[in-house]
Every structure is written in C-alpha cells, then in structure tokens.
Amino acid sequence: MKISTKGRYALRMLLDLAEHKDNGFISLKEIAERQSMSKQYLEQIVPLLNTSDILRTSRGKQGGYMLAKEPSQYTVGQILRITEGSLAPVACLEDKVNQCSRAEICKTLHVWDGLYKTITEYLDSITLQSLLEKHDDMGNYTI
Fold this sequence. Notes:
- By secondary structure, the protein is mainly alpha-helical.
- The protein has helices at 5-19, 28-35, 39-50, 76-84, 109-124, 128-138, and strands at 55-58, 64-67.
- It is elongated and about 60 Å long.
- The chain starts with a helix and ends in a 5-residue tail after the last helix.
C-alpha cells in the first residue's frame, strides 16, 4: 500500500486546521503557505472532505475552513479512507464480504487479512490530537 499525495496533503491540511482551531475559519491560502503546498491542490481535496462532514466552511472575505469536530474525533485511518478509498492490501478484501472465487482455498488470504487488520487498527488508533501532542513532545517532523 502506498499513500498518495492526496492522502498525505489531506492529513497535513487537517492537522493544520487542528493546530489552529482557535483561530476561527482558516483560508486555504494560509494553510498552503504554512504547509508549503499548492492551494490549487488543496482545492481538489476539499470536496472529498466536505462530503464526509469533516469540515465546516464559511464563504466570504473572512471565510475559510475549520474542523467540524474536535481533533481527537478524527483518525488517520478515517482520513485516509476518505482520500485513498480502501486501505486493503489486496482487492479481495475491499468489500465487506470477500467476493473472490478462490477465497475458500486461498492459502495466502490469512496473510493479507492479518496485514489489513494490522494497518486498520494502527491507523484508526492515531487521532489528529495525538499527532499534535506527539509533535509537541518530539519537535518538528513532516508527514
């Protein structure tokens, strides 16, 4: 599994909003400048996040974006599933019910299923808040 730029930028954008949550609505221009990202690329990510009710938006001169909930209520896994789709390492695990005709006889399915569970549990255990706290403890680092 490889996380795309879209997933990494969405996470950085949401972390920026979490870090500046007390500043009200924040423009994409501000986020892009602080994070050294393209504002145009962020504009492509925002619709994905908006349809998932992660963001609150305000239009106009003082408009921008803010998190709809507290940073502790968003997990890295949730954000990556929105931007990347399934986190499954193989196609047969993408649906709730395995549709693969070989599932019953597959000798490697338990490997992929175990990897998928490990990835999911790990990414769902990390919140935006915990990333901010870890950052404060460790100093600056980049995602």
